[in-house]
Amino acid sequence: MSEKVRCLIIGSGPAGYTAAIYASRANLSPVLYEGIQPGGQLTTTTEVENFPGYPEGITGTELMEDLKKQAEKYGADIRTGIVTAADLKASPKKITVDGKTVIEADTVIISTGATAKYLGLPDEAKYAGMGVSACATCDGFFYRKKVVAVVGGGDTACEEAIYLSGLASKVYLIVRKPFMRASKVMQDRVEKNEKIEILYNTNTLGLFGENGVEGAHLIRHKGEANEEKFDIAIDGFFLAIGHKPNTDIFAGQLDLDEVGYIKTVPNLTSTNIPGVFAAGDVADPIFRQAITAAGSGCKAAIEAERYLSE
Ligand code: NDP
């Protein structure tokens, strides 16, 4: 089965939906495939307090539902499906969805976002679904009145620790450096939270437990004179150490940086392939905010429209 479209948008985070709003209002009749996580990463967060226009804050899920409705209102065709292959150098570009449906597209906007990273410990795989998680909002419910640990020192780690403190009896925050990189306001909230104990200069060596996570082996001041190994008893182990851009299926075609982020022309969303644009976290190693993603989605749709009219 094959279908021809003028503008295909891959991914349904703030970048994808904003591109869909602009592309549909420009009469490009965009088709958007939602991907593995409809609504993107914001659907795994709790309250979004920094998206302009919501003085009282809004939940990530509600924000994404509103963006989707807004895109549909102007005619965007939003579909469930995962892009499994892409031939971006073909003309028109050929995108395969769910391994079977081929879409031919004059322009493609890639807004596939990024995925949570893991430490790479064998125990993370061993205890997957049995105490290890990279999404506090998704799995926090299972740890009511239990003890959990969150790894990371960024805004995500702070946000997850605060969220979990509302459910769990105690939260360890495992930070590998002697300081956090999170914004000051988030650090303050974590430090003032009586249920959160911050373990600075600490790394995780492994996890232990019979039928699920019962604790973690930790090391403080690794490689220094005062190095110290110790264990903590926990029921849940949450990763919040950043993300990897979802670009594997485009490797070898699009120019990527050393981490895998799509390289775009400075100030634009154009990639090395004419008619292919990248918006949101997939091309943004620096800001990674919902509002910057939405802004770049807008730019991508405007660039796609200009490309088509040239
Ligand atoms: P960041 O990249 O900002 O932080 C990742 C954290 O994980 C750092 O503290 C890093 O440590 C640590 N880390 C990385 N690898 C390891 C490892 N192998 N072992 C132990 N620790 C590790 O990612 P975030 O997901 O926190 O944030 C991404 C972006 O999203 C940021 O720009 C952030 O500001 C933004 N954000 C904003 C929110 C908000 O405003 N409400 C909420 C959530 C995110 P180190 O510092 O040592 O490198």
TrEMBL record:
Cofactor(s) listed: FAD
Residues annotated as domain FAD/NAD(P)-binding: 6-297
InterPro entries listed in its UniProt record: FAD/NAD-bd_sf, FAD/NAD-binding_dom, Ferredoxin-NADP_redctase_2, Pyr_nucl-diS_OxRdtase_2_AS, Thioredox_Rdtase
Keywords on record: Disulfide bond, FAD, Flavoprotein, NADP, Oxidoreductase, Redox-active center
E.C. code: 1.8.1.9
PANTHER family listed in its UniProt record: THIOREDOXIN REDUCTASE 1-RELATED-RELATED
Reaction catalysed by this enzyme: [thioredoxin]-dithiol + NADP(+) = [thioredoxin]-disulfide + NADPH + H(+)
Biological process (GO), any one: removal of superoxide radicals
Record's protein name: Thioredoxin reductase
Highest taxon listed in the record's lineage: Bacteria
Mitochondrion listed as a keyword: no
GO molecular function list: thioredoxin-disulfide reductase (NADPH) activity
GO cellular component, one term: cytoplasm
Quaternary organization: Homodimer.
Keyword Chloroplast: no
